[in-house]
């Protein structure tokens, strides 16, 4: 093979062995070399699906989904989107099937999938790397603020302002159902330990008991709100971290300084307890998506920190990092794109 540029002549068994030692970024490039390498790529994907998406070296920081620019090429079948990996500063251009993420708004993310919706009540669940998707033609509700996927029930629970509703994940079926209209603002929702929780008002935690019939869902108060001086001007989030349910309070003072307070849900005593450390984990917050990721063994990721996205007056964005130990915020990177979205890439 000396002097040959025929990449397709590599033995398939050797190529498959090589994929065991590639990072996710390298694996994506591997699949674009030629047809024969793409076939190995697809074979590996099938194996990954049967192994819960795990491959050596794929533990990493979340990616950022960047809005389209005017220079993006489109075709009748695909639209090219940019995905940015903050840990290594690399940008990926991925063709997504008939989904314009500028027109659609991402309202949730789970296990590498994006939950997206548009103003015409259409919804789609999409894995950008595998291109697997489920489209719901019309769910009959105005643009949701956020959504969470309930794996064992085949539904999505979403909310707008003070209203909860659920949407069937059956392809091309518009089967939305009003769950409950609350008397307070909904900050966030999460699917945690098989149940749907909603964070409302001054940090009260509700559990939404989903029913199979057409009646209104029962909502139970499981924890009273928090007594935090930051609350009047705060933004609240729900995040699962190391099996614990956390409430994150983000506050900006008059000078623009940002502070975060953490509270852990005590399931035994049904109350919020103040937390001061994240340990080996880091949080990634966004108005649409939030997640916790272990920083152990991940190059470039800072433990015990909160990564968050700040829009600027020039319609660009800054990624900042708040250190829970010294309470100092540092600039991580900048984008000339407005409000990118966190996503944890997965091939499962």
Automatic annotation (TrEMBL):
It comes from Acorus calamus. Residues 83-323 form the KIB1-4 beta-propeller domain. The keyword Transmembrane applies. Residues 7-40 form the F-box domain. The chain crosses the membrane at residues 14-37. The keyword Membrane applies. This is DUF295 domain-containing protein. Gene3D superfamilies: 1.20.1280.50. Pfam families: Beta-prop_KIB1-4 (PF03478), F-box (PF00646). InterPro entries: F-box-like_dom_sf, F-box_BR-signaling, F-box_dom, KIB1-4_b-propeller. Keywords: Membrane, Transmembrane, Transmembrane helix.
């Amino acid at each position: 093979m000396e002097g040959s540029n025929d990449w397709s002549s590599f033995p398939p068994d050797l190529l498959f062995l090589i994929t065991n030692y590639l990072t996710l970024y390298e694996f994506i490039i591997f699949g674009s070399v030629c047809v024969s390498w793409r076939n190995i790529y697809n074979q590996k994907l099938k194996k990954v699906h049967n192994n819960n998406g795990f491959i050596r070296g794929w533990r990493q920081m979340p990616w950022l989904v960047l809005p389209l620019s005017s220079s993006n090429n489109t075709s009748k079948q695909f639209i090219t989107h940019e995905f940015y990996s903050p840990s290594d500063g690399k940008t990926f251009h991925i063709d997504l099937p008939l989904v314009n993420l500028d027109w659609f708004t991402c309202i949730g993310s789970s296990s590498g999938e994006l939950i997206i919706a548009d103003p015409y009540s259409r919804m789609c669940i999409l894995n950008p790397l595998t291109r697997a998707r489920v489209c719901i033609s019309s769910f009959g509700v105005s643009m949701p603020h956020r959504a969470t996927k309930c794996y064992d029930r085949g539904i999505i629970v979403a909310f707008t302002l003070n209203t909860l509703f659920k949407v069937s994940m059956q392809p091309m079926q518009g089967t939305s159902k009003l769950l409950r209209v609350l008397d307070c603002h909904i900050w966030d929702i999460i699917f945690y330990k098989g149940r749907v929780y909603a964070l409302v008002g001054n940090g009260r935690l509700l559990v939404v008991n989903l029913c199979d019939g057409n009646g209104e869902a029962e909502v139970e108060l499981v924890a009273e709100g928090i007594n935090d001086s930051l609350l009047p001007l705060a933004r609240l989030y729900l995040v699962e971290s190391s099996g614990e349910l956390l409430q994150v309070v983000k506050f900006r003072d008059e000078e623009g300084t940002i502070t975060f307070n953490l509270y852990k849900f005590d399931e035994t005593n049904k109350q919020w307890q103040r937390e001061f450390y994240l340990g080996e984990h880091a949080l990634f917050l966004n108005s649409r998506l939030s997640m916790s990721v272990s920083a152990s063994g991940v190059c470039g990721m800072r433990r015990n920190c909160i990564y968050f996205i700040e829009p600027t007056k020039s319609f660009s964005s800054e990624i900042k990092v708040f250190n829970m130990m010294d309470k100092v915020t540092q600039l991580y990177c900048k984008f000339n794109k407005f409000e990118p979205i966190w996503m944890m890439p997965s091939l499962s």
